[in-house]
Amino acid sequence: MHGVAQATMLHEHPFEFMRLGTALERVGQTSRILDVKHHAVGPTLEEEEEESPTEIAQWLAILRFCSGVEPFLKQRNAAPSGKSVAQFLLFDRAFARSVLHNLDRTLNFVRLVRPHGGSPIGRRSEGLVLETRDQLAGMTIETVLAEGLHEVLTWLVESTAAISDALHDDFFDPEPQVQTAA
C-alpha cells in the first residue's frame, strides 16, 4: 500500500499526513512491543546476568516483530541481549522502526503539514513531538534502565497518545478563530 501511495499520490498534505500517522504509530507500537517483554517475563537487562537461550529467543522474537533481526545483527556480532535490543529499538536513528527514528520523522512531517507564515495551527503538536523527541534523545540506555524500562515505555506510549490528540485538535477539530471587529 505504501509503495502504491508513494508512486501514485500527489505528495501534498494528505500524503504527508499518511506518512506522519505511520511514523507516530511506529513510535507507540515499538514501545508497546518492547514493553511486552517486560510484562511477560520481567526485566532481564543487566549485562552481568547471562541470558538463557529462552530469553535470547524472546529478544529475537521482539526484533522479529519489529522487522529488526537483520538490521540488528548487521550492527552487532554477538547474540542479542535485553540491553542491546532495547537500545537498538529505542535509539538507533538508522533503523526505520526505532522510536527515535520515528520521532524524528514525525517532527519532520508535522513541520511539512503546518501552514507557513507563523500560523498557530499545529504549534501544539509540533511542540509535543519536539519535547518528546528531545527528552528521549537526551537519554541513554543506562538512563532508561535507571528510570525503569517499563516507566520510560509507558511515558512514550502516553506521549504518543497526547501527540495524537494534539494532531486531531490542531488539524481536524480546531477551535474556531474568533475575529474581532477593529
Terminus-to-terminus distance: 50 Å
- Could you give a short account of the major beta sheet? none
Number of strands: 0
Average pLDDT metric: 88
Q: How would you describe the overall organization of this protein?
A:
- The protein is mostly helical and 182 residues long.
- It is 70% helix and 0% strand.
- The chain is built from nine helices and no strands.
- Helix 2 runs antiparallel to helix 9 (149-172), helix 6 (99-113) runs antiparallel to helix 7 and helix 7 (123-137) packs antiparallel against helix 9.
- The longest helix is centred in the first third of the chain and has 29 residues, at 13-41.
- The chain is elongated, with a radius of gyration of 19 Å.
- The mean pLDDT is 88.
Please outline what is shown here:
The protein has 9 helices and no strands. With 182 residues, the protein is an all-alpha fold. Helix 2 (13-41) runs antiparallel to helix 6 (99-113) and helix 2 (13-41) runs antiparallel to helix 9.
List keywords for this structure.
182 residues
SSE layout and pairing:
Blueprint (H helix, E strand, L loop, with lengths): L1 H7 L4 H29 L11 H13 L3 H7 L6 H10 L7 H15 L9 H15 L3 H7 L1 H24 L10
Helix pairs in contact: 2-6, 2-9, 6-7, 7-9
